[in-house]
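Hey team,

Filing this mostly as a record. A colleague (T.K.) asked me to run one chain through the structure pipeline before their review meeting, and I want the input and output archived in the tracker in case anyone asks later how it was produced. No errors, nothing strange. Just documentation.

Input sequence:
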Amino acid sequence: MTDSHQWFHSAIVVILYGSIIVLAVPTLAATLYLTILTALSGKTGAPAVDSSPKLPLKFDIVVPAHNESLGIVSVVQNLRAVDWPTSQFRILVVADNCTDDTADRAAAAGAYVLVRNNLLLRGKGHALRYGFDVCQADGWADALVVIDADSRVSTSLLQTFASRLQQGAAAVQVHHGVLDPCQSRRIRLLSIGIAAFHRVRSRARERLGVSCGIRGNGWCVSAAVERAVPFTAYGLTEDVEYGIRLGLAGYRVHYADEAEVLASLVTDAAGAISQRQRWEGGRKRLLREFLPALMAWNPRGTRKIRFDLAADLLVPPLAAVFIAIALLSILAFTGYVATMAPEQGMHFLFLGTLSVFMSLLLLMHVLRGWSLSETGWTGLLDLLLAPRFIWWKLKLALKPNSAAEWVRTRRVPP
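Output structure:
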């Protein structure tokens, strides 16, 4: 081999090695973080109930609704059936820029309806702010609850919130799961991912004493804390943003696994693509806007909560982590074949082995999500088609997204 060929060959090996290191460090960090959460995802027990007599807390349940006439009646009826004194909670439906009869149907079902028409300030965040303003002006409720207009809640929902609030919690998130998770292959795969993200991570973060964050549906904040940290999140991921703002102010969101809110994922492919693009685009914006404050060394008292919220934002979707591990394996194999020095070959072999180890750790995380997803053995078999699902998500990530307002997800009958 000539000197020029040897130089070129050495340059290729160095580039491959450097690329692997640059890719391996964040991928390993994300994988280890998820592995720790997986190991800590055992069922969390409910706190001891205070048996001393006290007046029940008062709750305002705010339901933001945009053209939800088909399902709003069942949502209101479900909320009215919660196990809590009827004089101690109100259901407020915010009919936001509706062009159907959502408001009339909600009122007929027994909800207190707030009609909001503002074509300049559109989105779920603005609808929630409108509802919270009414609640705070009334000064009646001790706490504010957010439930989406396509959901079913546990009868113990308000009992769960009350037990946490009375023991000092500022905000609480119950499990946010999928209604009828077995209706199609795509819904089953999404349900497994949601279980991994919502239940596995939230259980572990509660055990670690950090904030589980807000998941957009099935959350509660005390009225006093909402006055101290006003809800001013109007972006595409208003839930995550408000959870971050609470964390920056020193308040952690407690996770309550004993109650749940289940929401419909019955949507066509176009609706799923639109929804996923909004979520991913919104999280990228949050990284740019909040990462410096979350990673700041001071104030010391909020460091634990802030660092974990930063880690949650920095960890990419599972599909992206799997793709990174696959690339690592390909690069390591290419480097092993290309090198002519035994010691360099061993380096590439080690990195290839590391990528296999990371894939096994990530698979454990996914399987833990499956075990909590209620998709059964069919869901496990569906995981064999995960590469196709990952490819679909990769195409979404590469596709530009210009959505900037609340777009109701299209739903189709199962």
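Quick notes for T.K.: The chain has 14 helices and eight strands. The first helix runs from residue 3 to 39.
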